[in-house]
Structure formats: structure tokens, C-alpha cells
Amino acid sequence: MSQPPISRFPVPDLAALPDDIRARIDAVQEKAGFIPNVFLTLAHRPDEFRAFFAYHDALMLKDGNLSQGEREMIVVATSSANQCLYCVVAHGALVRIYEKQPLLADQVAVNYLKADLTERQKAILAYAMKVCERSHEVCDEDYATLRRYGLNDEDIWDIASITAFFGMSNRIANAISMRPNDEFFLMGRMPRIR
Amino acid sequence: MSQPPISRFPVPDLAALPDDIRARIDAVQEKAGFIPNVFLTLAHRPDEFRAFFAYHDALMLKDGNLSQGEREMIVVATSSANQCLYCVVAHGALVRIYEKQPLLADQVAVNYLKADLTERQKAILAYAMKVCERSHEVCDEDYATLRRYGLNDEDIWDIASITAFFGMSNRIANAISMRPNDEFFLMGRMPRIR
Amino acid sequence: MSQPPISRFPVPDLAALPDDIRARIDAVQEKAGFIPNVFLTLAHRPDEFRAFFAYHDALMLKDGNLSQGEREMIVVATSSANQCLYCVVAHGALVRIYEKQPLLADQVAVNYLKADLTERQKAILAYAMKVCERSHEVCDEDYATLRRYGLNDEDIWDIASITAFFGMSNRIANAISMRPNDEFFLMGRMPRIR
Amino acid sequence: MSQPPISRFPVPDLAALPDDIRARIDAVQEKAGFIPNVFLTLAHRPDEFRAFFAYHDALMLKDGNLSQGEREMIVVATSSANQCLYCVVAHGALVRIYEKQPLLADQVAVNYLKADLTERQKAILAYAMKVCERSHEVCDEDYATLRRYGLNDEDIWDIASITAFFGMSNRIANAISMRPNDEFFLMGRMPRIR
Amino acid sequence: MSQPPISRFPVPDLAALPDDIRARIDAVQEKAGFIPNVFLTLAHRPDEFRAFFAYHDALMLKDGNLSQGEREMIVVATSSANQCLYCVVAHGALVRIYEKQPLLADQVAVNYLKADLTERQKAILAYAMKVCERSHEVCDEDYATLRRYGLNDEDIWDIASITAFFGMSNRIANAISMRPNDEFFLMGRMPRIR
Amino acid sequence: MSQPPISRFPVPDLAALPDDIRARIDAVQEKAGFIPNVFLTLAHRPDEFRAFFAYHDALMLKDGNLSQGEREMIVVATSSANQCLYCVVAHGALVRIYEKQPLLADQVAVNYLKADLTERQKAILAYAMKVCERSHEVCDEDYATLRRYGLNDEDIWDIASITAFFGMSNRIANAISMRPNDEFFLMGRMPRIR
């Protein structure tokens, strides 16, 4: 079977992209060794591209009590609930790399309740799943539970916003049939020999 | 009963906000006559505020075959499915104003299938609901159906992205208990005397 | 768009109705200033009309610890869960009028958990939603919870029966495409100037 | 295990009931040989009792293209979906008796799609299940389908209203823990020797 | 209506079956007085027949704190949740016979929460329903709850495995349209005169 | 975090196992290079172990129009729907190996509709998902659809039974917290260098 396209929509020629977008893509390519398809497919809409990655960076690169690996776990759990192939695969790679734990991403994707996580991390994902699936029921008790695990209100905002942002990303990726790069599937699976 | 706060989080003092954010808030206040709470509550996180409204403008103020009123209908239907009080009420007001139709927002919020809409508009909302609730099932047939109503692929991207973006907005608003301004409830309900 | 009919079924001529039904309709018209469509559409079936309104009056006009406004809140929450346009709009008007609270009906329709309600009222609606969506799970604990809020068993019967009766009404209205009168949408929204 | 009460609420003394209610109960006892518990338990609320049975008779004893057995099948399918023990058992007995078919009620209660029914009867129950579970989606196509089986619009009203009425009955019975009479379980199971 | 076949697949001639399978069928026929259709329909696949009944016997004929009647209750509750006509009817007969309780099977099939069961039995069925519908959420607390009712871990394995095995049986029976024998419907309904 | 046990239940000592079970385990260890935990954990119940693997072999090692890789795809899709970590991971490895396709298992686990599959394979998985989630709705049309893809009735039995059998396996694995061997996660991910 020949490989299907990475998007239902046209993928712009790198050379034709606005400078700021091309610079961002060049930077990620240098770091990762390849261009993740989310950059190529969203570049079809430059203004949305800029807002998307500005939002992404504001949530994923900020300080707080959530580690980078924990932020990526939220993405994997949310994306699995929304059945988004791109995000489960791409952010699963990031979970493996940040956590230096080659099994964790698959565990979280299938059932975080059976994953090798701390109770604090399971509470984080339980709240993320509530925001993902029935955010209208979020209540004081949810905040109280997370505070008991040493998280503060800013962390709780982070969990909700990461869940909400990737819920958006999942729906867009599903709607345009965004395909994950083959490279992601294997990344971080052999941490000891990296 | 005394009125509850507009957010679980601190609402920043306008004077203390970065200039660009204050300028945006001043502009909306001048146009609307009041400051919608989404501006005040999201200003707690300036970087996320900027990305949020950049994304919003990219999707809601762009050209295409969807009218402004139709874009807002998508927001109301999505926000009702996600039970987000802020967005149903605030964007319901916009539906009434843009469409000059005082009954439409409530109809769409309860059951768009019984609303005074064209078949084309019902097809738009049917696709939005699919993206909202089971985006992993989006398929070629969905695109074909919408094309039969004169929509092109860019319009279909718009529908999916508006649905996805406000799905994010709904989850954040629910998680922080964002309260709609009282003004929204009555806006656009008496179009003849406006 | 021309306005669709108020029912999929023939709407009887007032003059041709049995005397008791016409008297009931005359009375409501005198009080409300217009004839709510539920009277006109159900008059297609006189025996069912009589039983329907007898049941309605037995539940909604009786004494007890539930105020008229609280009885109507139950109707709005139930009708929103069942996505019944007629009942959300018509009984939303009654919530606004009885409670002299112009925002409350929309709040309850979208998400009663975020509405300006007392804890006792939220407990009433939580029980109504359980009867609406999974009545087979009603148990002793539900009764105990409501008693803690000062409700007695007769009040609990009332909540369940109002929820059940309007669940019936919702299904009939949806099946026959009963359209709410335009008048309801605006009623009670400006209580101070009434 | 001693047998639990037939209702969470007081069951009135027959002698203390209003004359019209006692007359109705006497009549059913004479015909059935016992008093079905729905009469005793609802008599706790005389006005609701009267409205309930007036509505019941208007729907179940009327003319039309639905046989009595078919009306009772709708009740069994609806009551099974709502997990109402009283109505599945009591109306299952009526299905067996009217249809002179001792297996049919259990088949319909578990899965009407595998029951010994005609295609017309399956279409009736499919529409009833739609009204029961997602009445807001009822559309022209549902009416067209039923008309193809020789049903007219009055019959379609009957199906919807029977489904809706017993959806009410199911919720009340579940909420008050109405217990079916032991007699119902065996009625109509041996039709040949009746 | 002529009676439909007992399976979508060919039912093998008894004489043509392997000796061990025919011996098993002869034995059940001698005991029951008829051949339950599950034996005839699964004999279409001899290897699967052997594994199926070996598994069945390992779970249903073993020792432990669950009585035979309680094992069969689990089957009825699971099969009702999966809407499997064959298993609800056939194992309902076994519940009646083992428990010498003619009403119990119908009660459990409709709503075990309203059945004449002990609290211990309701806890068993609550766990079975969790394994049936959301086994990924099984947790330590489930084990702790059942231990409080005097069940040990081997009993808890039994409950889960019976639920899981009959969940398999339900799906196969539904997929091949396995029809229950008429005899099952009446068995055990008149225990006093047996 | 220290690694949790592979089961909530005791794992028997290999030396203490019955000869036939130990022989089966020795054989799989020789072939795979390690002992998959399903063998060790189910050996706690020898009779169930024997029936389980006899059933497994009857379904997975038989002839027919479904390839070994396709049988394993059904397992992965079913196990993902049931959120069973053991089966998604272990049978995902088998999909990669049989299909010589390192990306396919993750694709099927997240959303088979977006996986690199033929239309015939998607039809197989669509039927498996129907058997998994709503087997009571299986109908003639399902058989007709699969026949159009060149599958015969015996293949359709195979799909249903594999789905049903692994639905059982998923529930047992979830209930006893069966942990997948670390080895499975990486197997078949680099097919070219195997």
C-alpha cells in the first residue's frame, strides 16, 4: 500500500512560506532531525499556525510544578480519549524521551490507570480526563483533590488548558487526516542506548 | 444570592496589564459598551490571552463562504454540546445580532435540528457536531456532503477549526468557572427597535 | 425563511373544540395574552389534552416545599437534557417570571451546576437529572440527601413526577415538532421594568 | 428474605379512597382477579391517579392500526430500555395474553431485533426506541418509513405518545420502587391451557 | 409466523458429530429432557465447542463461596446488559431452578438493583457489571468492597471470569442469532409444584 | 518506581505446574525467548488455562480467508476499545511481526479508520467493533457487507469469535491487572534489521 498524504489539504512549499514560519520550521528540523508534520500541515493557514504554536509554547514551555514529561502525558491521555493518531504517536515519543521511560507512553495511551505512574500523576490525568470528557462538571472538589497532591491553582489551570488545547489539536488533526511522521513511532523506545 | 465571581482565578487590574492587552480590551469595551469577561479572565495569563485572541480572529474574522452569523452558530451549537454557559450566552448574543434573528440562538442551543435554518446550515452544524463529539470518524463522505451544499474545502477547514477552537474555549471556561456578563443575555433580542 | 408550522399535525379550529377545552384555552389566553402552542397542538387529541393538563395541574399547582419557580426549574433542566425546544423556551419564561430573575433560565438550560442557585436547589436538580437519565439507579441515599435539605418524601415524589411528566411532554413535543410561540423568548427578561 | 413493600410511599386503605378511584380499582380487580400494584401505589395521589389512568386509557384503548398487543409491545420495549421492573413484568403479561404468544414478551424485553415480529412491528419498535432515547432527532424520514408499512400519522402519534407516557410511568415506578405483583410473572405463559 | 432457525449457520447432524461431542450432548439431553440450542449451534465448530464447554465447566461447576444460583445470576445480569436473548432466557431458567425462586431471574434481567437479593449478592452483581462495562477501571477498592462481604480473592476471580466468559458467549450468540429453546421460558416458574 | 507485579494473584512456580501446562510454557518460551505473562498469570487456574489456550488456538491458528496478521489486528482493535493494556501491547507486537509493518499496530490501537489498511480490512474491523460494542444489533446487512469483500460465513464467524474471545481476555486481564512483558513493547518495530 502506498503511503497516504500527510493531510487532506495542500502542504505548502517551504520556500513559499512567510519568513517567521520558515524560521520556526527550520529550528524544529535542526533539533529533531526531521520536520514534524504538524508544522507542514498547519502552515497551510499561516495565521492559525502562528496562534497555534504561540499557544502551544505558552502552555508547554512554561514553569510550574508539572514537569515537561507530565505535560506530555496529559497530551497522550487526552489524544487517546479523542482517538487522534497524530498526537498519540508524536507526543508519545516526547513522553518516552522526557521521562526516559520507553514503556510509559503506550501504557498511558491504553489505560493510564494501569500505567507506571505516581498517585499524584494519576490524579493529574484523572482531572485531565474530566476536563476532556465532562468539563461542565468540574467543581471545587476537583481543585481540592489536586491541591492535596501539592499542586497549586496555576498548575490546575495548566492541566485544564493543556487538555483543552490538545483537544482542539486532536479535532483539527482528525478532521484534516494529519498523518504522524514515521520517525515518531520508534523515538525514545531504547533510552539506554541513545 | 450575591453574584459569584467571574472566575476561580484572580482577575487582573486593567492598569497593570501589558499595553497590547489593555489596548485590545479598550477597543472591545468601546465597541460593545462593556468588557466581556473572557477578556478579563484570560488576561490572568497574558501569553495565552494573546494566542487565544489571535487564533479567534484568524478563524472568526476571515473571508469565506461562511457568514459571521454562521460562524457564531457553530460556536453556539458546540458550546451547548459542551455545556459551556459563557460561550452559549455570549455567542448566542452574537448570533442574534449578526443574523438579526432574535429567536435563533436559543433554538440552536437547544436543538439545531428544530431551528429556523436552511438545509445548508443544518449540514454545517451536523459536521460541527461530528467534529465536536467524534472527530475520529470524520471521513471523505463528510467532505462530499458539504461540497454538495456549495462549501469548499477551506470552508470545511473553517467549520472544523471553529468547532475545535471553541471546544478548547468551552473546557477552559468550564474549568475556571468563567461567568458571562449579564449584558449578553438580553443583547439582540429586540432587533426591530435596535 | 417563512415560519414553519407549530406542529406536524393538524391544529384544530378553536370554534370546533369541545367546550371544556375551549374554556381552558380562553382562560390561558386571557391570562397570558396569547395561546401557548401546547394548547393548540394537543387539542388535536381532546382526551389526551384533558389528561395532560389535569396531570400538569396536579403536579405544578399543588402545595409543598417546592416553589413554583423551583418546579419550573426542574422542567427547564429536564427539557434541556431531552433537547425539547418548546419546553426549554416556554418554561424558561416561567422560571424568569416566578423567580424574578432574568438570567436564571438560560443558566439552568446550559448547565445548572453553574447557575445562581442554592445548594438545596442544586440537590433538587441533581435528583431530577438522575430520574431523567437513570431512574433505575434511584436509591435510599437519594432520598436521604434530599431530606437533609429539608425536603420531605412528598416533595421527592413531586420532583420525580415533574421530571417524568415533562420527560413525556418533551418526547411528544419533539415527535410532533411542536414550535414555541415567539412571545416566550422575551418574557421575563426585563423584570425591573415589568 | 421477606418480601419488600410495593412502594416507598404509604399505600392507602381501599376503604378510605374517593369513590371514583375505588370503583376503578374494584373493576380491575374483578377483571384480573387481583389488584395490580400500580393502582394501589398511585392512589396515594388521587389527582395524579385520575390523570394517569385517563391518559392511559386514551392511548391504550383507542382505535387505530396498532393492535392492543402491539401497543403493549411498545410498553415492554420502552420499559426495558428504562429498566423499569414493574412495567416490563406487568405489560409483558399483557403482551403474552393479547398476542397469545407466550415467548414474545421476554424476547422483546431482551432484544426486540431478535424477537418473533413482523418487519412492520420491528419498524414500530425502532421508532419507539428513537422517541425513548433520542426524540430530538425525530425527522421526516421517520414518518416516511412508518408510512411505508401502512401506518398513518395518527398511528405515529400513538407510538410516540405511548412511548412517552410509559417513559413517565417507568420513571415514577423506579423512583417510588413500585413492585410488580407476583401474579404477573406467570400470566399468559401457557396459552394453550388457558 | 413460522419459527426462525436456531442459528445463522448450519446445525450439524448429531450422528455426524465426533464421539466426545455427541456424548456430551447425549448427557445434557438425558438430564434436561431436551438439547439446549447452544450445544447444537456451537457443534458447528468442534474445537471451539470443546474449549467453550471446558471453560464453562471450569467456571460454573467449581467450588467456592458463590453458589450455583449466584453464578447464574451473574450470567443473567451480564447477558441482559449485552442484550443476549439466548443467555438471558436459558440462564434465567437456571436461576429459577437453583434458587427455587420463580421471580428472581426476571427481576435480575430488568434491574438487579430492584431484585430480591441480599446486599452481598448486589455487591457481586455490581462488580460483575463493572467488569462487563468498564473493566479498565477495576481497582483495589473493588476487591476491598467484596472482601467486606466475606468473599475471597478466588471468588472475585470467579465473578470476573464468569462475567467475561458469558460476555464472550453473548457476543457469539448475538452474532450467529442463536435462538433459545422454547422450553427454557417456562422452566422453574412453578417451583412449588415441581 | 519499582515495577509492579504481573498479576493481583499468585503466580505459580513453574516446577509446580502440571506437565501439560509446563510443556506449553516451555514451548512458547523456546519460540519467543521469554514467557509471555498471560501464560504465567492464567496458570494460577490450570483448568481455565487449558480451556483458554485451546480456544485461542482454535480461533487463531485455523485456516480461512483471514491472515494471521488480520486476526491479530482484530485483537488489537478490540483490546483498545476495552482498554486492555496487556492485549494491546502483546498483540500489537504480533501485528507488527506478521504484517512486517512496524507502524500498523499503533495506528490500529488509536483509530483503525486512519490506519494503513485496505477497505476489506477496515470492513473486518468495523464488524469486529460492532460485535465488541453492540453485538445485539448484528444483522443480515453486516453479513452482506462482508461477503461483498470476498469473506465467507466461516470468516464472519471467525471475526465475531475472535472479537468475543479477546473481549473475555481483556476483561480478565483488566480484572487481575495482568502486566505485559517489557519485551513486547519493542518487538517488530525494526523489521528490516530482524
Write the layout of secondary structure elements.
Six copies of one chain form a homohexamer.
Chain A: H1 19-32, H2 37-42, H3 46-60, H4 68-81, H5 85-99, H6 104-111, H7 119-134, H8 140-148, H9 153-176
Rounded mean pLDDT of chain A is: 96
Structural class of chain A: mainly alpha
Determine the number of helices of chain A (DSSP H or I, runs of at least 4 residues). 9
At the fold tier of CATH, the topology name of the largest domain in chain A is AhpD-like
Question: Would you identify the regions of chain A where 5 or more consecutive residues have pLDDT less than 50?
Answer: none
CATH arch. level architecture of the largest domain in chain A: Up-down Bundle
End-to-end separation of chain A in angstroms reads 32 Å
The overall strand count of chain A is 0
Pfam families (chains A, B, C, D, E, F): CMD (PF02627)
Protein name (chains A, B, C, D, E, F): Alkylhydroperoxidase
Domain Carboxymuconolactone decarboxylase-like (chains A, B, C, D, E, F): 46-93
GO molecular function, one term (chains A, B, C, D, E, F): peroxiredoxin activity
Walkthrough of the structure:
Chain A is mostly helical and 194 residues long. Chain A has 2 domains: 17-60, Up-down Bundle (Single alpha-helices involved in coiled-coils or other helix-helix interfaces), CATH 1.20.5; 68-175, Up-down Bundle (AhpD-like), CATH 1.20.1290.10. Chain A has 9 helices and no strands. In chain A, helix 5 (85-99) crosses helix 6 and helix 7 crosses helix 9 (153-176). Chain A is globular and about 50 Å long. The mean pLDDT of chain A is 96. Chains in contact: A-B, A-C, A-E, A-F, B-C, B-D, B-F, C-D, C-E, D-E, D-F, E-F. Chain A binds chain B through residues 8-9, 45, 47-48, 50-52, 54-55, 57-59, 62, 82-84, 131-132, 135-136, 138, 143, 153, 156-157, 160-161, 163-165, 167-172, 174-177, and chain B through 8-9, 44-45, 47-48, 50-52, 54-55, 57-59, 62, 82-84, 131-132, 135-136, 138, 143, 153, 156-157, 160-161, 163-165, 167-172, 174-177.
